[in-house]
Amino acid sequence: MECRLVDDKEQWDKFVAGQSRAQFLQSWEWGEFQKEFGRRVWRAGVFDEAEQIGAAQIIEHHLGLGMGYLYCPRGPVGELHLAEMAEFIKKGVINYGHVFFRFEPLSCHPERSEGFIVRVPSIQPTNTLLLDLSKSEEQLLAEMHQKTRYNIRLAEKKELEFSDSKIGFDVFWRLMKETARRDKIKLHTKKYYQLMLQIVSCQILVANYQNKMLAGGIFIGFGDTFTYVHGASANEHRDLMAPYFMHWRAIQFAKQNGYQYYDFGGVNPDDEKDFDFRTSWAGITRFKRGFGGEIFSFAGAYELPFQPKMYKLFQQIKKIRKLI
């Protein structure tokens, strides 16, 4: 078993996109997007002789005070060989300022024997809602909550229009700010979304009414999965049920373009006592789960400290300043 850098985009994406429920956060484009913010990126492949069996896109993040950490979002993918990965990082990646390695394996929980590993709250949602697009549209509708199905039918009777054409980002940005004010959520900078649309293979899908955008979302298609990444909706004409209409049309769009899964993004687990349950997600979870589908639970987030003393100091600072 050997872990080494992969510098060929086609080779990298062929393996990562070939995984079931492919993760765009491990795509080559996402790594290039991260570089625009001054973050260094390493792409490590795990090989059994000539065959690649695992991959981890590792992104450097700075914490201040001369400290930083390495982050593998929604990965490693494929087989998890943490010991080989950790050895590779120690020899070829880390410097004196890297305090720990944070990773989010898809389904395989790391063994405690693989080192001092700490379970931590995930940056990416641990639970996501997936629709199986191999089902017919009739099946998908039948498996939705009755109220969701009713709202879709209601919206279809109105003069709503669905568009996947390139629109001016400024219109969508205004809608995002409107949503953020209403729902008290924090946005990235405008530049962040603009760069994402330029570098990553994503698109804005929208629901319009009388030439006014009422709902929209940024979607990323990668491998077998079409993912809802960011969304927004208007304060007016709430009775037209534009978000329901937009998602149903996006589901149809994904199905027509050959994707296996429609990923709604993060939702709460069923158990309110679960480590990753978030009270603030109650409303959005209820909305998404109305579309049916199944919750897919990832293995969670873990940290492997490289410098135990510095890691302990970091934990103390984080409690005070909430760095992450």
UniProtKB/TrEMBL annotation:
Q: List GO BP terms, alphabetically.
A: cell wall organization; peptidoglycan biosynthetic process; regulation of cell shape
Family matches, as SUPFAM superfamilies: Acyl-CoA N-acyltransferases (Nat) (SSF55729)
Concerning Pfam families, the annotation shows: FemAB
Q: Which UniProt keywords apply?
A: Acyltransferase, Cell shape, Cell wall biogenesis/degradation, Peptidoglycan synthesis, Transferase
List the residue ranges forming a coiled coil, or say none: none
Indicate whether Transferase appears among the record's keywords.
Answer: yes
Gene3D superfamilies registered for this protein in UniProt: 3.40.630.30
GO MF terms here are: aminoacyltransferase activity
List, alphabetically, the InterPro entries matched: Acyl_CoA_acyltransferase, FEMABX, PG_Glycine_Bridge_Synth
Q: Which family does it belong to?
A: Belongs to the FemABX family.
Q: What is this protein called?
A: Methicillin resistance protein
